[in-house]
Amino acid sequence: MSNEVRSLNEECGVFGVWGAENANYLTYLGLHSLQHRGQEGAGIVANDGQKLRTYRNLGLLTQVFSKPEYLNSLTGNSAIGHVRYSTAGENKIENVQPLLFDFTDSQIALAHNGNLTNAITLKRELEDKGHIFKSSSDSEVLIHLIKISNKKTLKEKMIEALNKIHGGFAYLLLTKDSLMVALDSHGFRPLSIGRLKNGGYVVASETCALDAVGAILVKNVQPGELITISDLGMVVDQWTKKTKLAICSMEFIYFARPDSDILGINVHSARKRMGANLAKEYEVTGDIVVGVPNSSLSAASGYAEESGLPYEMGLIKNQYMGREFIQPTKELREKSVRQKLAAVKGVVCGKRVILVDDSIVRGTTCAYIVQLLRDAGAIEVHLRIASPRFMHPCFYGIDIQEKDELIAAHKSIAEMNQIFGSDSLEFLSEEGLIDAIGLEADAPYSGLDMSYFNGDYPTYLYDYESKK
Ligand code: AMP
Predict the structure, then answer these.
(1) What is the pLDDT of residues 16-28, one digit of tens each?
(2) Which residues line ligand 1 (CB under 6 A)?
(3) Which EC class is the enzyme in (predicted)?
(4) Neighbouring C-beta atoms of residue 132, cutoff 10 Å
(5) Which of 221, 275, 343, 387 is 20 to 30 A distant from 252 in Cα terms?
């Protein structure tokens, strides 16, 4: 898919269960609450102690498991699942995860959330040695590295393999004996472990998926951890001691569901504080505060609370629209943005609107919304963005790898204000964002990956170094 056709979107969601009846259904439910993290494809691998079985396809989870027999065939007390949005690799069935590998003596299934920064180099090296890859996604590299390791146990092989890869990764690995969980040395992606009432374990990209299956949070996976869950219980190892937390700030700003807690911080509450800090940072006179549904509603309510202005429903989202990125041309995509959102005339007409959005990426949405509000009779539209200017691409698991795509990388605030047709435009400061998230870290270090805003990448970028 060309960049023209493909829009920016969130990464992937992973979910795993060990030691529970109906692991397939629990995984389905868990994945359902992670659907916002990826809508291109979904799959589940289940383990009955003898054999691993898989079903996966392109589409939303409900489309993939459209017939009961697809899910029913996945028997066993453990399973892993994945919802995919391609960060690397094309949108084709071979890339839909979990990937299941059948070896002569064993089976291994793999689900990956993130993006490796040295996968291209590793893949080339492996191919030169005769390895054949069956997908074009970067996730398969890990399995090849495990397979060439001379170490004895799977855990030792895994540790050796993990030390060869770089970038962002949250991995789930299922064999007939265990569920292995690994997080990169910066903890770029969120990953949590919970327990079910019957004692079974659950692993998920976000805590909202633990809630969905009635699991209680027992642990947020920490950078550099390798966790093995089996019938003997849970064992926590470090695959590396060289760790430094740099969790993705965009998870807090946009990706994660508001009911999730990331490292103990509720996402909705963090977004409210982003909105409140934005109100403190720039004064403006207005009549009402409107958020862009749905991702900006938390920030808008925080803005309204802090400024003392009424929070109003000035925009409505049509929940039944297809996604605009499916449209083949820019013009059609822009039309579908219009279909997706509607201004509430009776609310905004004659009003000075403070419009809060969570972030500006390409800038397409903002320009249309400002126009929508004006067409509905708003007399002023002041755009307030609850995150700093997004100027640098991401190489750790978000599908924004081209600087050209980012409007703030090329235009000043004044120029963007003119392009969007807003009366004023302001962005939350980096300090305001760090304060709003409020991660406990050793100041001045925030514990966050803020590279989108300042270009300060927490790692060397290997295959992507020239792109930053
Ligand atoms: P635009 O500026 O038109 O590209 O759209 C920006 C809006 O898309 C933001 O207000 C977010 O709600 C949402 N958004 C932010 N980051 C992403 C991303 N990586 N992928 C898809 N949508 C995003």
Answers:
(1) 999 999 999 999 9
(2) 8-10, 254, 292, 295, 357-366, 398, 400
(3) transferase
(4) 7
(5) 343
